[in-house]
Amino acid sequence: MKEEKLLKLLESLSWTEKVGQLVQLSGEFFNTSALTVGPQQKLGISDNMLKHVGSVLNVAGAANTKEIQQQYLEKSSHKIPLLFMADIIYGYRTVFPIPLGLGATWNPDLVKEAYTVIGKEAQSGGAHVTFAPMVDLVRDARWGRCLESTGEDSFLNSAFASAMVSGLQQDLDKQEGIASCVKHFAAYGAAEGGREYNTVDMSERKLRQDYLPSYKAAVDAGCKLVMTSFNTYDGVPVTGNQFILKDILRDEWGFDGVIISDYAAVRELIDHGIAEDNKEAAYLAINATNDIDMKSPCYANELEPLLNEGRIDGKLIDQAVLRVLKLKNDLGLFEDPFRRATEEKEKETLLKEEHRALAKKVTAESIVLLKNEHGLLPLDPQTDKKILLVGPYGDNQELIGLWAVHGKTTDTISIKTGIESYLKPENFHVEKGCDMLESYEFLGEFGATKDMIDSLSMSDEEKAMHLDHALREARSADIIIFAMGEHTMQSGEAGSRTDICLPQIQRAFMKQLIELGKKTILISISGRPLVLTEEAETIDAIMQVWFPGTEGGHAIADVLFGKTNPSGRLSMSFPYSVGQLPLYYSEFKTGRPLTSSTHSGRFVSKYLDSPNAPLFPFGYGLNYSSVQYSDLTLSDTTMSDELLINVTIKNSSSIDCLETVQLYIQDVVGSVVRPVKELKQFKKLSIAGNTTATVQFILTRDELKYYTHSMDYDVETGSFIVFVGPNSEETLEASFQLV
Ligand code: GLC
């Protein structure tokens, strides 16, 4: 529809009809089979308003969306189609690794391909918008939503944010793909104590320097929507925060797309204690230019009264409604309310072989080899050694993680299935060995009934039987593979935990088998960095596989048996202890740095009972090759506009590898303190066996900009150090002067 027609449509709407476009309700309100009395009454939405609601939350499927759209348009006087928005975070039916695993690929181009597939599958399923990517910076592994983030570094997160938005919205103007809604704006990942929905409080400098870049990258990549975050910034909840939403997002960044609140976040302004009631909450949110109120009655019931009382200008509502109508128009909904979603197209699109093949490739690149004592891995598929797979994740298809609501675990390749494709049956045995958790009581909060919870737990007899069988098989095995990890529901939203070791029941079980003195391999399944300090001491090889997605078992087996040379590098630090958190590589030096202070041993910045450094650092990951870095050279010892940086990398093994070469800098003295290291560039390249490569980076003056003491985004001349290496700790270094 042409712009002028859209404006005429806006003018033709009543205030109730306009307000309706700013309200989003979940699927049960559009239940076509029965009148939705319950939820409607509970939320306080009138029948009249229900007729005008503009968008639907978390309904997908071509048949479902078409039926609801058809029913809705039949009753709509202005025939404004509904927008269908859903959480399609890292996969629709073909589920990729969780984003913390995608971050470990250090391969934004590959992840863009994955998100193009996600957009195609979701579009075929009738979704118009996805609440993705989630680009919150995360530095505290206690927070369950690390799962959805690509990690602790704003530069790396920005690269993935841009790739994911571009993938989802590929050919959007040709009605392909779906609109991207970046979230959660802003700084939700800095929740104090890693506790879900907790306070966020930081300087504007830290917000701009560390937390905002990835959202900005998504906006610059053209994301159509932004979702507000639950947290406060500087004492004001973001959903009602004019500084964040209006001053920065709209005025500074020029974002003129749709801002949608997170779930009930408008009404939660009351719980925060910044609004007396629904009307005040609506007032704060609409003035902050939040356009859509997700799943709360505030806009629905209070915007018109605010208008009639003269407390808000009608222009605020008109601007918000126009942004929603433009989004619907950009998606071609006025011409085709179904966006070509048909059950036939859906059937032929979902879980296509090439989608599975891509998922396997992405998963393989997400796997991080954390330890490989004496080169135990890769295993020889022709081996006549006896291999035992034990643990709750051995024969288990629950590998897609919490936020894969449209995926099916029944599509998933288990680790058992993956390994079976390599080994002769007589050399491979599987035992569950132990339960996943000591207790499943916590699932009650997610609606599990007592019977369901009871059915999940093993009886004492079952526990004894499984242990007995595992010990018996382990005694005759040569190699034991432990498939262990946290439960799906122990991470993701509302999944904050203070004990992030492997579940005690699993650790006790492993200890008993480790005493047998066999070669051991741990496959760790998690949505966050776990504390693997004990396992790093006692297990011979450790693979971090995250929640690996639909093709998990195949990709894990390919790495185990060497078809894939692991190339994953951590995008989030793994701590020695939960007590170190928050933990990240780009920390400040402090006045008493551990290694260079003039003060005596005790009186420096450290713990009495833990190292400062992580167990496994940002950027870390092993492979099956043998790679050496040497000859770091700079084109000059002074830099004005740019500096050429060369490094030699030798693969002295016969095994080809994918190597992620990382370039960090340190601004040694600034007008404010500066991090000990900052990632500035990285290259993931293939290095054939027995070859040597020279890698060149061109560092530019702009890359050295930061928020100075005066809050100008600028460079300051002086001493800099360049670091190049395979991770944030093992680096070659050289100095230069910026002039
Ligand atoms: C949830 C999440 C958000 C999600 C939204 C809709 O509470 O915070 O990430 O997109 O509600 O389901």
Biggest beta sheet summary: 8 strands, parallel
- Compute the gyration radius: what is it? 27 Å
Count the beta strands: 26
- Report the total helices: 23
CATH architecture of the largest domain: Alpha-Beta Barrel
How many domains, as an integer?
A: 3
Overall geometry: globular
CATH homolog superfamily of the largest domain = Glycoside hydrolase, family 3, N-terminal domain
CATH names the topology of the largest domain as TIM Barrel
Tell me the β content: 15-25%
Which residues sit in consecutive blocks of at least 5 with pLDDT less than 50? none
Provide the helix percentage. 25-40%
Structural class: alpha/beta
Strand order of the largest sheet: 9-6-5-4-3-2-1-10
Mean pLDDT: 96
> Compounds present?
alpha-D-glucopyranose
Q: Assign the CATH class of the largest domain.
A: Alpha Beta
Report how far apart the termini are.
Answer: 54 Å
Catalytic activity: Hydrolysis of terminal, non-reducing beta-D-glucosyl residues with release of beta-D-glucose
InterPro entries: Cellulose_Degrad_GH3, Fn3-like, GH, Glyco_hydro_3_AS, Glyco_hydro_3_C, Glyco_hydro_3_C_sf, Glyco_hydro_3_N, Glyco_hydro_3_N_sf
Organism: Enterococcus larvae
GO molecular function: beta-glucosidase activity
